[in-house]
Amino acid sequence: MSTQAPDLVDFAEITEIELRVLRRMKEYTLGDHGSVFHGTGVDFVGLRDWQAGDRMSSIDWPQSTLTNFTPMVIREYEQPGTAPIVVVADQSPSTRCGTTGTPIAAGVARAMATIGLSAVYFQDMFGIITFDKGFARMAALRPRVGRGHVIHCLDAYQGRVGMEEVKTGQRLATTIGGHLRRTTLLPVISDFLFEDAAERIAEIAELNSVHDVVLVMIDSAFAFDLPDVSAGWVSAFDVETGETRLMSRRELRNLSARVRAWQDDLERQAHDRDIDVLRLDVDPERSLPALLEFVMVRRLRKS
Description:
Layout (H helix, E strand, L loop, with lengths): L10 H19 L13 E7 L11 H6 L6 E6 L6 E6 L7 E2 L2 E2 H18 L4 E7 L4 E8 L2 H11 L6 E3 L5 H8 L5 E6 L6 H9 L6 E7 L14 E5 L6 E5 H24 L3 E5 L3 H19 L1
Parallel strand pairs: 3-6, 3-9, 9-10, 10-13
Antiparallel strand pairs: 1-2, 4-5, 6-7, 7-8, 11-12
């Protein structure tokens, strides 16, 4: 019997997201908009092994013959008019919690897939930095171009692919900034339900002077909207700290409202620091249109 956890975003969902991204992006690029292409063309970045999803046109056939096509070799290019996209994604154990079979992490993964597949359309480089326990531990995959790398990043977020460890410094802004080699679009995707979230947002705001930082906040109040219980007292277990707390039935009923108020307050603090915040529902029918609109606005900023 398989013990592998179910996919947060399966192949069918990725395909559906990709089709909707392509349809919406074509509407955008065929419309009246500023050019997103600048400079003299493309620059050669380097060679790498072929990955599923890479285009046939990107294969370096002469170099591949030297390896006897095991593996095939891909030539990577970089367009001067583009900027890398690096998603900072919450991988905390608490994001695997939820209700009705929908974990909070599913919202994080869908947001990552949508942003990544839109980057593929514009030939932008895409990478990820994951964190857990309030940025205590971090890991990363360097930005690359291509659909195959986006799928690779999604597998890494779900714990199926090894990642490069990011050494954490005293300040979060220094740690993340030191990992970025050039000006980057930096969506930070989380529910921000950790104790020092306000302080972490303040540190992330320091990156906004160089990079394009946006908070993508997953509305996780649904995960705390629990059914009524007959017991007067309920024992709650924290999956991250391992602590147990006894709470009354009234406190249990108010959990969802407290989470919503917490996120509302963090959103106000982020706006006060001139950081844009995108609130997302875990329902893909509600979140995907908002994400696509976000991507288009960011493309206009880069024009």
